[in-house]
């Protein structure tokens, strides 16, 4: 089961609310933010369309335009191939159209009030940029073991950047959404579980092992800073409070157990997420040396094979990702035609 399966009942609630409150149309526009290569988007959009159709009047058969957004450096060739693959939602029913947008979701990507439904799954934990360098062997903001070694001003800079980015993201969506439009979003979060802190520790120790093995320089280690923040519920609510154009409905942490057969497979998953941040910190010689990634994967697999948080089983057997789900709708705009 994937995250969409875990949240499909929440998506159903959101689409039921949308169909009840939004104006009936002959065409609806769905915006998928942070589509990457599209593998998560296929199932997500399929569920959204399924729940939307089930919530509309039985005689309704609107056209649906789905636009997938990601930043210009994204692999759009693979995304486009995914969108026309046999598993695509475009074959689920007639009158579905699709396209892509090459732009950061920290900018307005659609005209004002042009979007009926926006979805953003597993992407808003990435910040718009690295807020400030992290010192020494600290590689992630959410690493409680090393926060004592980070200057309070640096931590405050990261915390403020995470807040500002989420506020900006929500304000942009408020501009793009039509009245009563729907925003469903998820991102990796912090619910206070000790396991959440382990990801930062494991990455930090793997990078330390690479330096000890002589495969990565200390200077490159010092440049590593993964621009990712796992927000708490209070941090989410603080951002929402600054965007009164949006009304908050359901929100909750969604723990998802991910089953891996061994440490190597869990490392492949983490490496696909974290490697770009490490790669960006390296020298050209390190970046082009295939042994560097091999050693990184080996170090990560060794860490994933160890028990954590007082457990008796290796980390890959208790691998849980904590997501946060939030559903917001666009409050109606003031009637500017009124005298």
TrEMBL record:
InterPro entries: MeTrfase_7 (IPR005299), SAM-dependent_MTases_sf (IPR029063). It holds the Pfam family Methyltransf_7. GO terms for molecular function: methyltransferase activity. This is SAM dependent carboxyl methyltransferase. It comes from Aphanomyces euteiches.
């Amino acid at each position: 089961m994937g995250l969409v399966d875990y949240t499909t009942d929440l998506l159903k609630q959101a689409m039921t609310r949308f169909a009840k409150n939004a104006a009936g149309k002959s065409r609806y526009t769905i915006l998928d933010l942070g589509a990457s290569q599209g593998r998560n988007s296929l199932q997500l959009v399929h569920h959204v369309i399924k729940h939307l159709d089930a919530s509309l009047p039985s005689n309704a058969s609107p056209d649906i335009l789905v636009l997938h957004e990601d930043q210009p450096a994204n692999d759009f060739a693979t995304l486009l191939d995914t969108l026309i693959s046999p598993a695509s939602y475009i074959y689920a029913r007639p009158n579905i159209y699709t396209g892509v947008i090459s732009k950061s979701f920290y900018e307005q990507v659609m005209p004002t009030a042009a979007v009926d439904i926006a979805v953003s799954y597993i992407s808003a934990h990435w910040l718009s940029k690295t807020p400030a360098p992290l010192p020494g062997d600290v590689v992630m903001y959410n690493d409680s073991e090393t926060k004592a070694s980070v200057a309070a001003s640096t931590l405050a800079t990261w915390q403020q950047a995470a807040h500002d980015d989420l506020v900006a993201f929500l304000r942009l969506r408020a501009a793009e959404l039509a009245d009563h439009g729907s925003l469903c979003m998820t991102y990796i979060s912090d619910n206070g579980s000790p396991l959440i802190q382990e990801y930062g520790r494991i990455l930090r120790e793997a990078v330390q092992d690479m330096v000890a093995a002589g495969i990565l320089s200390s200077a490159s280690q010092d440049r590593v800073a993964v621009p990712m923040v796992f927000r708490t519920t209070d941090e989410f609510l603080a951002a929402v409070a600054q965007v009164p154009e949006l009304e908050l409905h359901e929100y909750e942490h969604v723990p998802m157990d991910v089953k891996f057969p061994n440490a190597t497979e869990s490392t492949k998953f983490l490496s696909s997420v974290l490697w770009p941040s490490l790669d960006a910190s390296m020298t050209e010689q390190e970046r082009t040396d295939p042994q560097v990634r091999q050693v990184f994967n080996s170090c990560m697999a060794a860490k994933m094979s160890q028990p954590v948080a007082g457990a008796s089983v290796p980390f890959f057997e208790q691998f849980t990702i904590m997501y946060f789900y939030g559903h917001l709708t666009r409050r109606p705009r003031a009637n500017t035609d009124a005298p």
